[in-house]
Structures are given as C-alpha cells and as structure tokens.
Amino acid sequence: NLWVQFPAVEYISRRQFESDFCLSRALLEDRENLIVLSDRIALLGALGHQNGSSDVYVELNDPKSEPSLRNFARASGLPVVATNDVYFVDPTDFPMHRLLRAIDLNASLSRIPPAELVSEDHWLKPEVAMARRYPHIPEALENAQRIAEACSAPDFGRLAPPGWSSACT
C-alpha cells in the first residue's frame, strides 16, 4: 500500500538533512511500495534500467515536453502516465494560490512576479477533462487510472513518524 508507509516522507527528510543526498541513489536502494512518476529523463534513465521498471513511469504533464518524453519512453521501454501538475483542487482556488504566494514572497498581490505563479490551468481535473487533453495517448490515461486504483487513502490511525515510539523513557 503506497500511502500507509509514506516512503516519500523519508526521502524529503533525508533531502533536507543529508548534504550528500541523491534521489536516484535513494530510490535505487529501496522503493518498495513507491510508484515513481517523473519527467526528468536523467532520473528515469537511472531508475528504469535498475531493479526492474514496473513502478517507474514517464510523466506527461506539459505539452511542450511531451514529444521528447514520449520518444524517451519508447526508447527506454518505460510506460507513460498522464498527469496534470496540480497545485489546487478547483479552478476557483487560483486566488488562494496567489494570496499564498504573496505571503510566501512577502509581497503585495499586485507585485507578485508572474514567474512565481502557476497558471489557472493547474487544478485537479476530472477524468473527462484528462481524456480530452490526452486523446492521442490512451495508454497514459489507462496507466493513470491503474495507479489511482493502486493507491488507497491513508489510515491515520496507524501512522507514526519514522523512529516514533509510544514508550515513554
């Protein structure tokens, strides 16, 4: 189960605290229960040829880079998956995104540099909208569905931070 163990949390923590942290090396060491989606060809190349590639997918989320990523996927034998680079749940959440970016940048709403905002298109789209976006790559949509079905909601009653002990000393 992908969510119960939260392996990605470990990688994020290690990235923050280990000066020599290397994501590709960490993923090669142990990626049990982790599905890797990436549009970084170097990372995909390192992972796809090691330890099997059944849990490594070429992520298609930007029409500009799609042709080169599809070519890489064909050449490497890695499957593609359709994603959507989500920053907010609903298109009406874009103003909140702007506000949070302004707070983070300590800037007024009118002074946020455009490069600091994602477009209003970065919301969690339903299956129908994704099918309209990727009609020419049905296998990418099928893989997205397969991954979604493989993931389940977390059971917060069973989670504990790494190294957490319930015993008091």
Question: What are the SSEs and their pairings?
Answer:
Layout: H1 2-5, H2 7-17, H3 23-29, E1 36-38, H4 41-48, E2 56-60, H5 66-76, E3 80-82, H6 94-105, H7 127-133, H8 138-150
Parallel strand pairs: 1-2, 2-3
What's the short version?
The chain is mainly α and 169 residues long.
Please characterize this protein's 3D structure.
- The structure is a single chain.
- Helices cover 43% and strands 7% of the residues.
- By secondary structure, it is mainly α.
- A 3-stranded parallel sheet has the order 1-2-3.
- Strand 1, helix 4 and strand 2 form a beta-alpha-beta unit.
- The longest helix is centred in the last third of the chain and has 13 residues.
Unreliable spans are: 1-5, 160-169
**Span from first to last CA?**
32 Å
Spatial strand arrangement across the major sheet: 1-2-3
**What oligomeric arrangement do these chains adopt?**
single chain
Order of helices and strands: HHHEHEHEHHH
Largest sheet: 3 strands, parallel
Strand content: 5-15%
Task: Give the fraction of residues assigned to helices.
Answer: 40-55%
Average pLDDT across residues? Answer: 81
Q: Count of DSSP E strands?
A: 3
Count of helical stretches: 8
Which geometry do the CA atoms define? Answer: globular
Radius of gyration: 19 Å
Helix/strand class: mainly alpha
